Amino acid sequence: MILYPAIDLKDGQCVRLLRGDMSAATVFGDDPAAQALAFQAAGCEWLHLVDLNGAFAGKPVNGAAVEAILKAVSVPAQLGGGIRDMATIEMWLTRGLARVILGTVAVENPGLVRDAAKAFPGQIAVGIDARTGRVATKGWALETDIQATDLARSFEDAGVAALIYTDIDRDGAMGGPNIAATEALARAVSIPVIASGGVSSMADLLALRDTGVIAGAISGRALYDGAIDLAAALTRLRASPSSSPNIPQE
């Protein structure tokens, strides 16, 4: 199982939100590229980046910070937030992103997801953010009646590389991930599923890994707070391989 350190960007800074609330942001640093380098030095295989302002604006806002990260590190990175048209997808992939994450458009324009996955094989992921099983879009500000599992299944034949499943009520709360819901989603589809939201301890990581069906886990606040030591966690996960599916590398 791959552990993805998260760098959430708001106004050019590294922050973490509590349950997606932009007014409840904790700033952890003003040099995202330096933070990315620190994660790389600890041994991470991937980085997970989020343009929080972009998620609300519907277009890239923290582009300078993302580009600085891409120039600083050699590990692959995935980015979500404000990516809602083919031009933006192509722009980011051209600039060095390994994978883009489509969230709001996966609900509003699923045809774009299919077109992008066909045009850029292995480089398109779908972000499924949910409260009590229902998908939320536009930076989690708009709740829909769409069930997360139904949305995931609708992309089974689209060729997307991964699904990033976030339980919004767990995000940033340090209360543990929704393992049952994430595992259920992973068992419902053949697309690799990455868990996000509430991953706050080594025990959480091992529990996700030991489901045998979850391909990755994203953690942010726990790494910044020191609740998870990234280098130690990576070593432990690698020392105890599970049967979890790996997402193909580029």
Features:
36% helix, TIM Barrel, 8-stranded parallel beta barrel, 11 helices, single chain
Number of domains: 1
Distance between the termini: 17 Å
Which CATH C-level class is it?
Answer: Alpha Beta
Architecture per CATH nomenclature, i.e. the level-2 architecture:
Alpha-Beta Barrel
Q: Compute the gyration radius: what is it? A: 16 Å
Multimer state: single chain
Kindly report the spatial arrangement of strands forming the biggest sheet.
1-4-5-6-7-10-11-12
Amount of beta strand: 25-35%
Quick one: overall form? globular
Which whole number gives the mean pLDDT? Answer: 90
Residues in helices, as a percent range: 25-40%
User: Would you identify the CATH H-level superfamily?
Assistant: Aldolase class I
How many helices does DSSP assign?
Answer: 11
Would you count the extended β strands for me? 12
- In terms of structural class, how would the helical and strand content be classed? alpha/beta
Q: Main sheet? A: 8 strands, parallel, barrel
The low-pLDDT segments are: none
CATH topology: TIM Barrel
Sketch the topology as an H/E string, one letter per element.
EEEHEHHEHEHHEEEHEHEHEHH
Structural summary, described in words:
This protein has one domain (2-239): TIM Barrel (Alpha-Beta Barrel), CATH 3.20.20.70. It is built from eleven helices and twelve strands. The model has no long low-confidence stretch (mean pLDDT 90). Strand 7 and strand 8 (134-137) form a beta hairpin. An eight-stranded parallel barrel has the order 1-4-5-6-7-10-11-12, surrounded by seven helices. It has helices at residues 32-41, 52-57, 63-72, 86-94, 104-108, 110-119, 148-153, 179-188, 202-209, 221-225, 230-239; strands spanning 2-10, 13-18, 21-29, 47-51, 77-80, 99-102, 124-131, 134-137, 142-147, 162-167, 193-196, 216-219. With 250 residues, the chain is of the alpha/beta class. Helix 1 runs parallel beside helix 3.
